[in-house]
Protein 1
Amino acid sequence: MTVGSSLPPAERRVLRHEILHGLRSGILNGEIPPGTRLLEIPLATERGVSRAPVREALRQLEQEGLVEFLPHRGAIVVGVADIEMETIYGIRALLEERAFAKACRVVDEAQLDALAATVELMIEASDAGDVAAVTEHDMHFHGRVVELSGFQYLRRLWTSIDGLVRLRAERYAQRPDLADPASAREWLMVPSIEHRQLVEALRSRRPATAARAARMHVARALERLHDEHP
């Protein structure tokens, strides 16, 4: 399959991040399946832009692990085997415990309040059964903590697994039982509320406390993956 005419046109002034958002959303919600070729020229032509922003968006998707560049084929949408997710979450746990330990020493009150506000938005979205919004707030929260830590290499590593974690969350969101808002609310609420504990761990200004909270949070996320797919 080749993506081209199936994607909607965009205004000439479309920015790189808008192209990125459209392609990422298509991949995450299954509209652009694994094996699809993403060609620069058709994508740029349909959106009325040069190839440069399309190329940048595709390279970002490569960093996020959602596409792979193959010789003579260009960018190909890739999938992630279930067996690899435990390793990915293990890497995430190591990355986040170090990021939280560092961030708790440098984050200021305004930044903590902003993180807490993101958590409350996540909880509100959980109460509404809005899986997509919860996922977006969740990834923003964790990505922001990694950013606040100041670890540039860890931030690049986080970017490389961000898309994979989003992909798994979006796949879970397609489960038939989550079409019912009440079921979705129950599934989303507990992990969303857990983020309040993460904020409090950051407020403690104790690196060991923050690291432990982050590690336990990711471990519980992995346990939920196992519960869904024993």
Protein 2
Amino acid sequence: MRFLVIEDEKLAAERLIRMVKEIVMDAINVGTADSVKSSIRWYENNPRPDLIFMDIQLADGLSFSIFEKVRIEVPVIFTTAYNEYAIKAFKVNSIDYLLKPIDKEELARAIEKFHSLYNKTEVRQSSYDAGLMKQVLQMFANPYKTRFVVKVGEHLRHLDIEDVSHFSSLEKETFLNTFSGKSYGLEQSLDQLETLVDPKNFFRISRKYIINLRSIKDIISYSGSRLKLILSVASEDEMLVSREKVQEFKNWLEGEKK
């Protein structure tokens, strides 16, 4: 079984590849892609795989956009952090969904379904209903991340966006900080995170910090026409809104568009 993984989180992609190979001993990972653009480019320049594992939310948009650019003629198993009950409503034909973090037994059942519907020598064309895809696109209209996968020792765990107090950058490393006071390293830079989180809830106050609106406990006038934020979570550094962002920050607090 030759499979392609489309996933924008490196740790999640590596874990998925490892589990697939543990379930199917002769499985071959023929490639990975981490965005809509790179997925289209890969598919246009490589032989088609037998099966695709496709994350719904990618760094540059929803993966359903890929179907508009290239003809996908192999079965797809989608992976997503969205509510399990909503997902069940869209299980049709050869399409299947796995809720993140992916459970190995659920993955095994999805692969078993693939094997029962498609033989290895002749993979028949998948049937994708345009109307269904439109409904799914509307369902996933919010393009922002709802969950992050982080590494804790040898383990992976998921954190809901509601648990994030702020993101920080220190010595070229990026960290996710929770309301419970814990900190986890991330692969993405703050520049990337700024496009992945909902701007209604998160604001980049400086080169070093992106903060959650709910984490702001107090706002104090500071020297040089700047603002100092007191967060509900203790921080060793001062949380200062950079001078050039003060007015934009005030507009954001009032609910105006950035």
Protein 3
Amino acid sequence: MLQIRAARKVFYKGQPDEKVALNGLDLTLANGDFAVVIGSNGAGKSSMLNAISGALRLDSGSIVINGDDITARPVHKRAAHIARVFQDPMLGTAASMTVAENMLLAELRGRRRSLRHGLNAKRLADYRERLSILGLGLEDRLDTRVELLSGGQRQSLSLIMAVGGSPDLLLLDEHTAALDPRTADIVMNATVRAVEALKLTTLMVTHNMQHAVDFGNRVIMLDAGRIRLEIGGEDKANVTVADLIGHFATKTDRMMLAS
């Protein structure tokens, strides 16, 4: 489903503060893979997601999704194939629009729009059903402006919007990091249900080592813009938080993650 080949990106090239973000990164995901991506700050995690989504242009290398080379394709032309949930709950929704209007925009992402794509009774019933699985009461707030929702409610809505169009690839960019523990659990459980029900190919970046242990069928550690460690199959089923923390290069990272 996803093939990244020899992806390279250098910021401030030729300047004193030159930074290699991606250094010949190679990654392949099969259809239905749920890969959890870990790594220290600056390891290349966000750069990788930005390159896949089109927000970051590679200096060299290629990105292919479902057999389609999208390396040179802009963000809006990738939208029908890629959905992304950000760490900041404010980024995935339009604040001044209602819950229902936001869901309609997400449903029509990447499609040609016309007057027939309105908020009819059938759509509203579908939105209520999809939101009810969160257990946050959003199914009864379809006419509420999103700016009036809590951060957790807004992030949960972002997730439902992201998976609603059954994208080829779902990118989760530390999507529970800004939430309180209870809401993070709700969003994570909803994520797993959606990924499993729709058989979504998923890349989830996280600093939560327990999430890396508990979720997905692969763990990928990035370091200096390339894959340093990959764990899958039976090894993934048996890996522990301590195992993962032990692979981090610096004592500071290991202490921070263990706390």
Protein 4
Amino acid sequence: MTQLEIRNVTRRFGDFVAIDSISLKIEAGEFFTLLGPSGCGKTSILRMIAGFDLPDAGQILLDGKDIADTPPEQRPVRTVFQSYALFPHMTVAQNIAFPLKMARTTPNEIRQRTQETLKQMRLTDKAENYPRELSGGQQQRVALGRALVSRPRVLLLDEPLAALDAKLREEMQIELINLQRDVGITFIFVTHAQDEALALSHRIAVMRQGRVEQVDEPAKLYGFPKSRFVADFIGHINMLDAQVLEAAHGHSRLDISGLGEITAPPVADVAVGCKGAFAIRPEQVRIGIHSEVAELKNHFSGEVRNLLYCGDVTVYKVQIAGGRMIEALLPNSAQGRAELFEVGDTVKVGWRHDAGVFLHE
């Protein structure tokens, strides 16, 4: 069921078009993420949903009702900012209770809901502490508790994990997933971090220059991007210029510039001669010196030019025919591995006939 609808919304700042006729439908109880590079319009959308800014054209509908004329404080929407914006002179309990006091809630209800929220955020033992006495993760939970205590219909999160270190950010990702599941309200999350979006979201809208490039589930965005921008922005990928030689029902044949012919998955609505790019993830590329690589339909000889040891995996950059560079990822726990390949080693790289995707120009 659609809870929030952004319908043909445009926002301009002088001659600059920040949001260019965007339409989105967000389901009730969904963890929905707006993902894109800085300046693509993510935060502008969040500000319009919150009521801090108004669209120049289009509508924002909550439960089917246009909320353009509803002031921010009267919208059932709360925002958690990157800075948390906690009141330093207030205790944890006072910070959480603040929205209820501003809404003139009765003292008994303030006390009850504050205690419930403290328990939910696992902050009961920190109720009398001040923000300066808390860790970054605890401050994060106070900000979330303050936003949730008034029981909003929608929670907006504007890059709330950006200030945390990598390990704590991962811990907070798990906490956010569990929290969203427990409270059951709609989360709209803004980030420029692809891994964060993939880990947290039910669906992701990838944005670029004020427009939506693709809206999909994380696995579909990663595995089946619909444009070069989405393929390149989400994770690491090999992008090879290609032309369609054959578009059959069960497969396609592509001519890769400087490399030759490969067999690829079928391509829809594409004519022979169409130009574009063949995109394949490094983890789909096999690397080795053994016959299992040569047995793959698409395989090539090359030389290791660079490698990056990452603990659990090693990423190799292999130069093949025509000077093409192919990135391959090899788990360091792979069965039978005795040693790493080194720079200068001659290797084979290959991939299955059903791996990768052809992207139109």
